[in-house]
Design goal:
It is a single chain. This protein has 244 residues and is mainly alpha-helical. The chain folds into 2 domains: 5-55, no CATH class; 96-237, no CATH class. Helices cover 48% and strands 7% of the residues. The strands form 2 sheets. A 3-stranded antiparallel beta sheet has the order 1-3-2, with no helix packed on it. It has a two-stranded antiparallel sheet with strand order 4-5. Helix 4 (137-148) packs across helix 5, helix 4 runs antiparallel to helix 7 (216-237) and helix 5 runs antiparallel to helix 6 (193-212). The chain is elongated and about 105 Å long.
Length: 244
């Protein structure tokens, strides 16, 4: 058997100039790595480090890495069947009937708000406006969540979703209550909202972020969607949002 030690070079000691078509060899005994010229492909020789006889693989041989079966397929029974079955992910779709129902309700609310505009009593308009801000909060919060939620995450359902919608809707409605308590001299100028706006936005973003795990951008648009819809309805009813 011809020794091939002179053509086995440790990776850590050889120069940066690589041999043409070198074959990487790993000794099974001492686990040292060597690069061997392709002319020794398929031959045997002693390892320069531990003198164990090693076989040089052929240049055309492919290295296959076999992953453990349990890491991919899961635990199996004696008969070879899978013991644990993966939980399939369910995609939430919105049927056309629900979309038409929501659109019809939104149109009805808008017409009702326009009808309230002709009431002589401004106190009644304020009362209906306050009731609308509270009553519309849950559906707007729920609709905004379904539209802005992260599709990579499982959607909240059942009692968990009901509680989260209720808490977020309550916070959103409270922001309108806080707004109504601010004296008019602090809200009748546009520049004043450069200071008030971020405060209300921070409250709404915090609520949607904590309740629905939305990112900050989606949380902002979630709250802005509620404020925009309820604000437009207030204007339609003739309720002045600004003192001016």
């Amino acid at each position: 058997m011809a020794p091939i030690c002179s053509d086995l070079y440790p990776v850590s000691r050889r120069s940066r100039r690589s041999l043409p078509m070198a074959i990487l060899v790993v000794c099974r005994s001492c686990h040292k790595r060597f690069k061997v010229s392709e002319k020794f492909a398929g031959k045997k020789g002693p390892c320069p480090n531990c003198k164990e006889i090693i076989t040089i693989p052929g240049a055309d041989e492919k290295v296959e890495i076999h992953a453990p079966e349990h890491s991919e397929a899961g635990a199996r029974s004696v008969t070879g069947e899978l013991v644990l079955k993966p939980v399939s992910r369910e995609d939430h779709s919105y049927p056309l009937s629900k979309i038409l129902l929501i659109s019809g309700v939104a149109l009805g609310v808008l017409l009702f708000a326009l009808g309230l505009r002709f009431l002589d009593s401004s106190a009644l308009r304020y009362i209906f406006g306050a009731l609308g801000a509270v009553a519309l909060a849950p559906p707007l919060v729920l609709g905004g969540y379904y539209f802005l939620r992260n599709d990579e995450l499982e959607a909240y359902e059942g009692q968990s979703l009901t509680i989260r919608v209720g808490v977020c809707a309550a916070v959103y409605a409270v922001t309108w209550a806080i707004f109504s308590l601010i004296p008019p001299e602090f809200t009748n100028e546009l520049y004043q909202w450069f200071y008030l706006g971020p405060i209300f936005a921070a409250i709404g973003m915090t609520a949607s972020f904590c309740c629905f795990d939305l990112d900050l951008t989606s949380a902002f648009f979630h709250y802005a969607f509620y404020v925009m819809i309820t604000g437009l309805l207030a204007v339609a009813m003739g309720v002045p949002l600004l003192a001016a």
